[in-house]
Design brief:
The complex is a heterodimer.
Chain A (H helix, E strand, L loop, with lengths): L5 E5 L3 H13 L4 E4 L2 H7 L6 E6 L7 H11 L5 E5 L4 H9 L4 E4 L4 H34 L2 H10 L5 H8 L3 H14 L5 H18 L1
Parallel strand pairs in A: 1-2, 1-3, 3-4, 4-5
Chain B lengths: L1 H5 L8 H17 L5 H43 L3 E5 L5 E4 L1 H7 L3 H4 L10 H15 L9 E9 L6 E13 L2 E10 L1 H23 L3 E5 L5 E4 L1 H9 L4 H5 L5 H6 L6 H15 L6 E6 L8 E8 L7 E7 L1 H56 L5 H29 L7 E4 H18 L3 E6 L5 E4 L1 H21 L6 E8 L3 E8 L9 H4 L9 H16 L4 E3 L8 E7 L8
The chains are: A alpha/beta, B alpha+beta.
Chain lengths: 208, 572
């Protein structure tokens, strides 16, 4: 873990912000607080780790507006919305935007802490996943073009013989490529390799 | 020569000729010799004859003069504007002049030797006879020079009555003692007096017929007259006799000396009467309570000068209890409607208010949770802990303020006028509206704060007017999805009043007459707005101000209302 997970707090209400920071710090969380959406965007980067506790109603930039801005800037922080009233349109809008959670004020302390922990765990999980994916992709990058071809056809369910025919090479050569690429990709079996291929294809698609 | 002359009768000669002849005779008598006695006797006789003629002439002239003079005085007697009558025993008329006869309405000839009393009204005859007999008998109890008003002498001409005054003296005449009376016609005077008495009675009757309690007081503050309502009221209240009848009572002093619960009002009334009597004010009006056990009463006293303040003043106490009760009923009805409107307004603001209330409660729970967590891990430095607990305290105070503000706003209550700073009231209203505006993305700008400016108002009702106007603006801006979202509140001090302006960047009022907006029975879709405006206008007018919508403002809707400034020097 290169960076400590931080609970970010954005609330324009000084007392609420200060008390929330104190409360979270007293429970051992690392907290960083901002009085407005703009201050948050200026004070953080898109790869921030942790979660964001965000007040729905604020002057200038509302919680939902900040969420949109974060998506635009590539933030992937899970957001825990706080609002006085869970009015339906806001909720629907927030969920479409990928919010992970939604709590009503006044919130029970244990519930809030539990949800923050869940958000942090999800973020941790997400980042671990992402790191694994990045490793798979970098391994994929290191394959030769022939190995990538074999991997592509093999994960489509073609037999070695069929691959050999398709590529105009001998079955024996296909087997050699296959064994080598399984080793390089650190895939134990074909099923795992298939998952990896899907990930790398997706990445490839996005790149185009 | 002598012989010639003797043939002429003496009586045809002129007076100078007679004198000349007499002188000639005396000269001739002196010249004639003493021995001629016969001649001298003749001359003497002739001279004597001339002298007799001259004396006779003088006597005749004197008689003529006397006759002229007598006639002159007789005419004076008859035609004098004063009537003269000479009365004998039992009031028999011995003589009367023409003026007197005219006063009695009969020719003189019909009156002489007739009883004077025959011409009198029955009721006055005895009094007349006693007067005449008293004069004739020299009765000391009847003054010789007596003044007696004899009413009711029948006048044949117009059948009306005359009033005569007799001034009588006794005198000795050729038929013994008689009574000479001068008669003066005082009919006009008597009629004027009777008229005055009638008008006085009429005035009193009118005063008595009026339901208000009325007293007329002189310039010295003493009571000149009261009406029966005044007396009845005094009787009902078991007032001392001198107050009940009132006449001569120094009302001003009585007011000044009043004791007990009425003393303050009584003193105010005394000052008012003073001001009217001194001509400092044209009229004084004061309302005061006068509750009897079991029933509430109010009176209004009005003091107005008589024709001129120096003549005194009229003090009128009017029972205005019915009016007061009606006013109270209508005020209570208005208050009930205003109360309902406040509840309605809070309903509109509810979600914003819940949010506002949630903030401090949430913060407080965070602070206290922090304290608990600190204790759990043994972090118990007093300075640290008290900082956190101060946070709890401050947030609970914040919540309390919101609840207090809301409770004040919603409390069912009677209109209560206070001297308050206008900024404070505006601050309270904006406090309740803050989150509502934020939620709707509308800025509220207090354009011109007016520090220290005080008004005499019911603060809650004024707050209600502001909330209503601003709330309407916010909703209008939001419904119209305006880009520019702002409500401005401005306060301007005028000479004796303030003007509050609430303007917004909304779509403006409908084109129809702005007055239609204030119609509580408007069937428009936004009738609740009309209801709120009608109540707001009602409230402002109950404060002595006006509320109106500006016609065709440059932007949005603009409402103005005025309130009278509190009296100088008063403060909350």
């Amino acid at each position: 873990m290169s960076r400590a997970a931080t609970v970010f707090v954005v609330d324009d209400d000084d007392a609420l912000r200060e008390s929330l920071v104190l409360m979270l710090e007293s429970r051992g969380f690392q907290v960083q607080a901002f009085a407005s959406g703009q201050a948050f965007l200026q004070g953080t980067t898109a790869d921030a780790a942790g979660c964001l506790v965000l007040d729905m109603r604020m002057p200038e930039m509302s919680g939902l507006e900040l969420q949109e801005a974060m998506l635009r800037h590539g933030y992937q922080l899970p957001i825990l919305f706080l609002s006085a009233f869970a009015d339906i349109p806001s909720t629907v809008h927030a969920i479409k935007g990928g919010a992970v959670d939604f709590l009503e004020k006044p919130v029970e302390m244990d519930v809030l802490i539990q949800h923050i922990r869940q958000a942090l765990a999800a973020d941790r999980q997400r980042r671990r996943q992402r790191r694994a994916e990045q490793q798979i992709r970098s391994r994929y990058e290191q394959l030769t073009p022939r190995q990538r071809d074999v991997m592509g056809l093999a994960t489509k369910g073609l037999s070695n013989k069929e691959i050999a025919e398709a590529l105009g090479i001998s079955s024996r050569t296909v087997e050699n490529h296959r064994a080598l690429l399984m080793e390089r990709m650190e895939a134990d079996n074909l099923a795992v390799l298939c998952q990896m291929a899907a990930l790398c294809r997706g990445e490839g698609d996005r790149a185009t | 020569m002598y012989d010639d002359e003797t043939h002429e009768p003496l009586r045809v000669l002129s007076k100078p000729e007679l004198t000349r002849r007499l002188d000639a005779l005396i000269a001739e008598l002196g010249d004639s010799p003493a021995a001629d006695a016969q001649r001298q006797l003749l001359l003497d006789l002739q001279a004597h004859q001339i002298e007799l003629e001259m004396q006779g002439r003088e006597l005749r002239e004197a008689q003529t003069g006397l006759e002229v003079s007598r006639d002159h005085y007789a005419r004076l007697f008859d035609l004098a504007p004063v009537g003269f009558v000479v009365l004998g025993r039992r009031g028999l008329i011995r003589d009367i002049n023409l003026s007197g006869a005219r006063m009695l309405g009969r020719p003189r000839a019909e009156l002489v030797d007739k009883p004077f009393a025959a011409r009198l009204q029955a009721g006055d005859k005895t009094r007349f006879l006693r007067h005449v007999d008293g004069i004739l008998a020299g009765d000391p109890s009847v003054p010789c020079n007596d003044t007696l008003v004899v009413r009711g002498i029948d006048n044949a001409d117009d059948g009306d009555y005359r009033t005569l005054r007799l001034l009588s003296v006794a005198r000795r005449g050729d038929q013994g003692t008689e009574c000479l009376s001068a008669m003066i016609d005082v009919t006009g005077e008597a009629r004027a007096k009777a008229k005055e008495q009638r008008s006085e009675r009429l005035r009193q009757a009118v005063l008595d017929a009026l339901p208000a309690q009325i007293a007329v007081i002189g310039s010295d503050g003493r009571i000149l007259a009261v009406n029966s309502a005044w007396r009845h009221f005094a009787e009902r209240n078991a007032a001392p006799a001198e107050v009940r009848d009132g006449l001569g009572l120094d009302y001003l002093a009585a007011c000044r000396q009043a004791k007990g619960k009425d003393a303050v009002d009584a003193r105010l009334i005394a000052d008012g009467i003073d001001a009217v009597l001194a001509g400092r004010t044209a009229q004084f009006v004061h309302e005061y309570p006068c509750h009897s056990p079991g029933r509430e009463h109010w009176f209004a006293v009005t003091v107005a000068p008589l024709r001129d303040a120096a003549d005194g003043a009229v003090v009128v106490h009017t029972d205005i209890s019915e009016q007061k009760r009606a006013e109270r009923d209508s005020r209570q009805a208005r208050e009930a409607v205003a109360q309902a409107a406040r509840v309605n307004a809070v309903g509109i603001l509810a979600s914003s208010l819940v949010h506002e209330l949630t903030q401090p409660l949430t913060a407080a729970s965070f602070f206290s949770s922090t304290a608990a967590a600190m204790m759990a891990v043994g972090k118990t430095e007093p300075a640290e802990l008290s900082r956190v607990l101060d946070g709890v305290d401050a947030q609970i105070m914040r919540a309390t303020t919101i609840i207090r503000r809301l409770r004040d706003f919603l409390r069912r209550r009677e209109m209560e006028m206070k001297t308050v700073e206008i900024d404070r009231v505006v601050g309270e209203a904006l406090g309740l509206l803050h989150w509502f505006a934020t939620d709707h993305g509308v800025d509220i700008k207090l354009a011109q704060p007016a520090p220290g400016l005080t008004v005499q108002v019911d603060p809650i009702q004024l707050e209600q007017v502001l909330i209503n106007l601003i709330c309407n603006s916010i909703v209008a801006i939001d419904n119209a999805h305006e880009q520019h979202r702002e409500v401005a509140v401005a306060i301007d001090a005028r000479r004796d009043q303030i003007e509050v302006t609430v303007s917004d960047s909304g779509p403006g009022l409908p084109a129809e007459s702005p007055d239609h907006l204030f119609n509580i029975f408007s069937s428009r879709r936004d009738a609740h707005l009309g209801m709120g405006l009608a109540i707001s206008r009602d409230i402002v007018e109950a404060h002595g101000g006006k509320l109106w919508a500006e016609r065709e403002p440059d932007e949005g809707a603009v409402f103005h209302f005025t309130l009278p400034l509190a009296a100088e020097g008063a403060s909350a």
